[in-house]
Every structure is written in structure tokens, then in C-alpha cells.
Amino acid sequence: MAKPTTLSAPKVGIVSLGCPKALVDSERIITRLRAEGYQIAPDYHGADLVLVNTCGFLDSARKESLDAIGEALNENGKVIVTGCLGAEKDVITREHPGVLAVTGPHQYEQVMEAVHTHLPAPDHPFVALVPDSGIRLTPRHYAYLKISEGCNNRCSFCIIPSLRGDLASRRIDAVLREAEQLRDAGVRELLVISQDTSAYGLDVRYAPYEWKGRLRETRFRDLCEGLGELGIWVRLHYVYPYPHVDDVIPMMADGRILPYLDIPFQHASANVLRAMRRPANEEKTLKRIEAWRRDVPDLAIRSSFIVGFPGETEEDFSRLLDWMSEAKIDRAGCFRYENVTGAASADLPGQVPEEVKDERWKRFMELQAQISDKRSRGMIGRTLDVIIDEVDDEGAVGRSKADAPEIDGTVFIDNGQQLKPGDIVRARITDADEYDLWGDI
Ligand code: SF4
Prior knowledge:
The chain is of the alpha/beta class. Helix content is 32%, strand content 22%. The protein has twelve helices and 20 strands. The chain has helices spanning 20-35, 59-75, 89-95, 108-118, 160-164, 172-184, 220-228, 249-253, 270-275, 282-295, 314-327, 354-377; strands spanning 11-16, 39-41, 49-54, 79-83, 101-102, 142-146, 148-149, 168-169, 189-193, 208-211, 214-217, 233-236, 260-262, 300-307, 331-336, 383-392, 395-400, 411-413, 424-432, 437-440. Strands 2-1-3-4-5 form a five-stranded parallel β-sheet, sandwiched between helices. The protein has a five-stranded mixed β-barrel with strand order 16-17-18-20-19. The chain is globular, with a radius of gyration of 23 Å. The chain starts with 10 loop residues before the first strand and ends with a strand. The model is unreliable at 1-7 (pLDDT under 50). Iron/sulfur cluster binds next to helix 5.
């Protein structure tokens, strides 16, 4: 239902920085604001107040967040800050004493309180006019589904646990209900996100809840089974290669879950992994990946890696490159290590010079381009399912099952002018480069 508006409805502008998890937080805040009768302003000048949802992960992201707060203050003047950097109120108020309020990550109640204080809600809020599926910032045909907050791991380079706390899983029936509502609202692809998707439910001892006449445990396998029943694309992000991930491989083989795993490996050298305080069992992981690929030959693995971690030697780095070639990681993001204020790794000896980080980053990206190029060219002549993201006079742009939005490649369909976003079509692939494909329908 279209939401009625009034001339007097107070307007809130939103600046959303950071990762998909922060985007989900922004969506929840917007849903609450709209439910209370606020309007969302498209720019600073149309807004009575601006909310900045910040990221505090890397020092560069912190700087970007502080700059965004400064810009919002200059352009609008009334600014409330939330999100990861909001956990460090002093950092924000020292640089920007003019902000009205600062709240931390996923503190929805506090954000709403701050908004009420500085921009009262309309007298007669339009209740029940927000769709059940909430307000989403992603296009209508795909949506992020956040299954938990926080993380029980303590990777030495990461301050997310100190910002977002320990793992707190949402109950499985609530997650599946949200997923069903999203599907009913037209979503064709769900992207499951968290800090550690495979740890889902550990904190609540896998508590069971009834969903659709059956008891389901709050655990990774039951979640995937429930999502796999929805009949839409389900893509898993931030999964760790624990043995129980094997449980979803049959669901990928029979098409219930997309043959795609986003696994943030970060490195492959045992020395570096130990210094990162992450499990160092790359050999076992290689065997596991081989077994997965035997059962699901089209499985696409995306990962992220850090080069130039303190203490990383040339030998460690070569080990990483060899492992990448053996594991054939299809899509990879690579970050040059950056010290993060408050992270244990900032104090480690053996900090790697910037020029060495750059050189390793380039070698990593060259190898990754070769692996990706080989996979892409192997697709020529095949017919793939493609979900359409955009359509214009020149054709349609979509993604294969191996491509997540924003981070992976695209499929260009020159004769797809009649398609619409959210359509899933069969396209014959005619050309490819390292990251993108071209095809016809
Ligand atoms: S798994 Fe490690 S890197 Fe990821 S959020 Fe948890 S502590 Fe941070």
C-alpha cells in the first residue's frame, strides 16, 4: 500500500555507511521511522534532521564516518550518529561536538528516543501502513536477511566483538517469518548475513521453535532447510568452513540453496592465521572444498583475504598464493592490512612496510584475476540462470548464481530490453572477461 503523506510530516535524512549488516540496521531504523509517521528525506536540505549510520571497522572507515558526520553537520546542522563508530562516543564528540546524540550499533530504541527528543513524531502517526516486510534500501527483488548480531570469535585484527558484543542469534521462527514476508513482498533472492553465519544458534544452545507445523532448531542446518523451502534464491554469506557446513552441500546439489559460499578465509599460512587468532587448518579446509566441489561442481567460493599482516613473511605470502591456486577461490577481495585502533594486532611486532603490502596486493590480485578469468571463460557456451537487476534501452544486466550483488560479477544480456528487475531467465553465455559475462536469451 502506498503510504499517505502530510505536509507536516517530519523528515529524516539517512546516511548509511559500512557493510551489508549496517545497511540492515539502517533499514530497520527507517522501518520504525516510517511506522511512526516520519518521512525519509532524499537529501540534506529536505531533511529536518540527519541520521548517520557509521562504520568503525578500519581506520579508513572511521575517517570516512567522521567526514560524513562533518558533511551532514555542515549541510544540515541537526545530526544524530549511530552504528559501529557510535560505540566510541568520545571519538565522535571530540571531533564533532555539535552532534545531537550518539548511539551504538543496533541500538534501535536509543536511536528512536534521540529522534523523538530532537524531532517529535507527528501527532497522528500512520500506524500499520508499513509493509510487513519493512522498508528496504536494496532493490525490491533482493534483500539482506540478518540472522544474528555480534561474534564469539576474537580475531586479533577485528574490533567488531568489542563494538557489537558476543553472538546473539535471532530465533529461527522469527528469521523464517521475515524471510517468508520478504518473499511474499516480491523478493526473489535472500542474502543471509551475520558476522559468523555457521555459528548461528550456538549462543542459544540451538533452541527449537515451531515453524510451519514442525520444530526447527535455531541452527545453521535447520535455517538453510527452512529458507530452502521458500522457492527463491538463498545465498549464504560469512560462513566458516566448519564440518557442519557439509550439511548444506546436499541442499545446494538439489537446488534449494544457491551453490555459493562466502567464506572469509583471510589467509592460508598457519603462522599468519595463528597470529590472527583464527583456526589454522588449511590442509583440512582444502580437502573439504574438494569434497564440496565433487558434490556441487558449480559451487562458487567467494572469500576475503588480508595481505601484509604483521609478521607475514615472503614465505607466508607464497603459501597463500599456492593455497589460492589449489583451492581455486572463484571470487576474492583482498585488503592491505591496516592497524585498527583498539585491535590486538596493532601492537604485534613485524609490521609490514606499505610498499611490501602494495606489491603483495598486486601479486594477489593478478593471480585472482587469472583464476576468475579461467572460470568465466569456462562458462562460454553454457546456459545459466540469471537474475535481472537493471534494464534499459541497451539491454538487461543481471547476475548468475555465482554472483552476489555489489561484490561479484554481472551478466550483460544485450537482447533483454523486455525483461524487468527480479526476472530469472536462462541466458546462453557468448563471451566473458575475468569478472563479467555476456549472453543472449
Ligand atoms: S569472525 Fe573474526 S573478523 Fe569476523 S567479526 Fe568475528 S572477530 Fe571479527
